[in-house]
Amino acid sequence: MTFELFFYLVIITAMACYAMLDGFDLGVGILHPLAKTDTERRIFLNAIGPVWDGNEVWLVIVAGGLFAGFPEVFATIFSAFYNATIALLMGLIFRAVSIEFRSKSESPTWRRNWDYIFFFGSLIIAFGVGLVAGNVIEGLPLDSNFDYQGSFFGFFHIYSTFVGLCAVSLFAMHGAIYLVMKTEGELHDRLRSWIPKCIGIFMLFYGITTVLTIVTKPYMVEPMLKYPVLFLVPLFALGAIVSVPILMKKKRDGWAFVSSCISISLLLSLSAIGTFPNMIRSTIDTAQNSLTIYNSSSSTLTLKVLAIIVSVGIPMVLAYGFYIYRVFRGKVVLDERSY
Amino acid sequence: MDVVTLSRIQFAMTSMFHYIYPPLSIGLGLFIVLIEGMYMKTKKPIYIEMSKFWTKIFALTFALGVATGLVQMFGFGTNWSFYSRFVGDVFGGALGAEGVFAFFLEAGFMGIMLFGWDRVKPRTHYLSTILVAAGAHFSAVWIVVANSWMQTPAGFKIVGSGLKARAQVTDFWAMVNNPSSIDRLIHVTLGCWLTGLFLIISICAYYLLKKRHLGFAKKTIKISLISALVVLFLQLLSADSSARGVAENQPSKLAAMEGVFETRESTPMTVLGWVDKETKQVKGIQIPALLSFFVYRNFTTPVTGLDQIPPDEQPPIQVVFQTYHMMIYMWGLMLLATVVATYLLWKKKLENSKWVLRFLVISVGFPQLANMVGWMTAEIGRQPWIVWKILRTPQGVSPGIVPGQVLSSLIMLATIYIALLAVFLFVLDRKIKHGPTNVIEEGTYLDPFSKGDK
Questions:
Q1: Hey, which bits of B250-397 come out as E strands?
Q2: CA-CA distance, A169 to A201, in Å (whole number)?
Q3: What's the pLDDT score for residue B440?
Q4: What residue spans define the domains of chain B?
């Protein structure tokens, strides 16, 4: 395996970790307005309180990893998506500060305003992440210097909008399952009843997106036609999604959450399989101007250094990550230090 | 205004707003390690009370640091795409290490530090506090290394030319340990400690002034004043070493910092002054031969002046000169505050010295201002280069973006940052007024939405 391929897999794994972990934080944010009382909203916030910060670091790893391992991709994608990136950053700022600030005053106006900011922040991030993914699948008009030649709002089109909606509904479902695990009593039962609705909405958007992909992006399906064994990926993804409501009905909430995680990472793998080895397709000249994992990567020395950092660091991160989740397992209990 | 100017303003603005918070986290983090350590040793409840109070303030600064820090990293890609392509290979290792070793550690154990008091053993909690503080320090290491490489590049070669030119690492450790890394890292870290310490000193002085939480305040201010004295002394040594490094590696920057136009023997030092660009002179108070002594340890060797630097390689002189001097004045004010307060504390008169306490309350601003103007000296002094002698700042900008885009993002970010700072100060003020005692009686919690407002 080449260092380019290894580090590409690292980036994809980091993306999957971000989507699985921060995905439920974003989902909780998206569902936040549905919580009725202040106590319910505090339970929502405190369900993610001790862990969301660490989850968000995976996004930093994705962006930092691109800067480090594939600087051309980093430079192209964020300068091309200038407006979208600024919007995403505002979402990230809003989400972070609303969680911290909301509890600092008892004024209802204060709290309600931070509730809105928390909701919109989470929504913008979830939609923005999907929008970027949609554009990566779609490709960008790149010239021979890998610079973007499109318009400022060129990233907003039907396809990427639907991928964005998929992300929002998928994270909402994921967040709902997480909340079911973290709550008890009446709220718990109410949350449980939301799950089928969340899945229904997601399936609707996912169905439309799939049809759009097959019809308008034949290159996404090509690798699977070439290696039919890859059809197992969408098949397992579908199986994982279908198993979620079944497991929820059997009150196997933990397993439903695992299923949801699996479906998220398989859907991500699906888009990676379709685009490989391109990281960003050029719609002007796909063969010459596309950024692939080979023509956009750092030098072998840097990739080696990164490989060492990752092999030493990530197992440690995973080990203490598991430990921290273990410490905060179980239902949310509010005390004087809670948000 | 063009894209380059707007992008520079945006990067400067987001950096400066960002840099209000991380130094506080780094300084407070270390202080909490100290205090919780005392609790672990003595088991006196006052120390746990202190730890819990400062942890809350820490959490606030940390949240703001994370929120504003994300903008920094993405800012390279959005506004400085050519620069990102050019340095990606060099920054790669440092940035990867920062993410994997620093950010996860901080953000992960932060959860236990804040919410884990009753969930883990005291020993484990203390370990988490140490790891959070260590993470905060690690993040400073890697970002300062990356910035130092821009000041004094080493361990790399240039591949390709024109728009395809890229800097490529040839020696990773030479890149990390470039000529200015160690000096600047020490200087920045000490600055962070001072920032944390003076926030603590300021809050305690406020309590002493208001005669509240006296036991807590007296204990805390004693520890922090003594620490500040030590750190201020160390900062003096670090400043000396850093400035001599600048003289060696970036003579044009030192010439601008000290306002040296003419290269001559026994170079004088201007203590306070105003740069007159027309006559190429600095008007003000000068001490003969002092600069030669500081740089070369003798009173004769000439210090390189701006007459040795081509005009198109000179930084803006007035602003570099003034920001650099302002940083030194701030150090002087911190020293004055600390020495006077320590003396009065020793004489047991501090509690009743109202004016000194008021001075200590505003002293929180001194290290903050020193940080801001210090970074302005470092970054504006590097101009016109974005990477010293290799890449000029205007070359680094993203080719595809237009002024309107940058102007609107600049206005939006500025608005958000000002609002955030206002909310931060409001919440901080509430926390300070609420104070360290943290007793919420059973049943006093009221749902704010149930008060008929909704």
A1: 269-276, 281-287, 385-387, 391-392
A2: 7
A3: 40
A4: 182-401
As given in the structure block, the two tokens for residue B1 are 């205004």
Please give the residue of chain B at the shortest CA–CA distance from A68: B92
The confidence band for B393, taking pLDDT boundaries of 50, 70 and 90, is very high
**pLDDT tens column, A207-266:** 999 899 888 888 888 888 888 888 888 889 889 988 988 998 888 888 999 999 999 999
Q: Which chain A residues contact residue B89 at CB under 8 A?
A: 71, 298-299, 302
* List of chain A residues whose C-beta atoms are within 8 Å of the C-beta of residue B409: 82-83, 86
Rounded to 5 degrees, φ, ψ at B18 are -60, -45
List of chain A residues with pLDDT < 50? none
Task: Measure A97 CA to nearest chain B CA, in Å.
Answer: 6
Q: What is the DSSP string of A243-261?
A: HHHHHHHTT-HHHHHHHHH
Residue in chain B nearest A36 by alpha carbon: B449
CA-nearest of B111, B103, B55 to A56 is: B103
- Token code pair at residue B201: 């000193």
Q: What ipTM goes with this model?
A: 0.85
Interface test with A, best of B10, B13, B68, B78 (most A CBs within 10 A): B78
Parse chain A into domains and list their residue ranges: 3-327
Residue A237 in contact with residue A254, Cβ under 8 Å? no
Instruction: Name the band, by pLDDT with cuts 50, 70 and 90, for residue B451.
Output: very low
| pTM exceeds 0.90 | no
Could you identify the residue written with the tokens 């993610």? A48
Report pLDDT digits (tens) over B266-313.
888 888 888 888 888 888 888 888 888 888 888 888 888 888 889 889
Q: What tokens were used for A59?
A: 């996004």
Q: Is B55 on the interface with A (CB under 8 A)?
A: no
Q: Name the token pair of A126.
A: 């979830």
For residue B95 the two structure tokens come to 């940035």
pLDDT digits (tens, 9 = 90+) for A84-105: 889 999 999 999 999 888 888 8
> Which tokens in the block code for residue A283?
């719609």
Helix residue spans in chain A (DSSP H)? 3-31, 38-48, 52-69, 71-80, 82-101, 108-138, 158-182, 185-216, 218-226, 232-249, 253-275, 286-289, 300-327
A contact test, residue of B10, B104, B132, B434 with most A CBs within 10 A: B104
- Rounded to 5°, angle at Cα A198 from A42 and A100: 25
Q: Are A275 and A220 in contact (CB under 8 A)?
A: yes
C-alpha R_g of chain A: 20
Q: 3-state DSSP: chain B helix, strand, coil percent, rounded to 5?
A: 75, 5, 20
Exposure string for A231-266, b = 16+ CB within 10 A, e = fewer? eebbeebbebbebbbebbeeeebeebbbbbbbbbbb
For residue B104, which residues of chain A lie inside 8 Å, CB to CB? Answer: 54, 57, 313, 317, 321
Q: Are B2 and B13 in contact (CB under 8 A)?
A: no
Q: Take residue A318 and report the two structure tokens written for it.
A: 């995973």
Those residues whose C-beta lies under 8 Å from the C-beta of residue A327, and which sit 6 or more positions away, are A50, B111, B112, B116, B119, B120
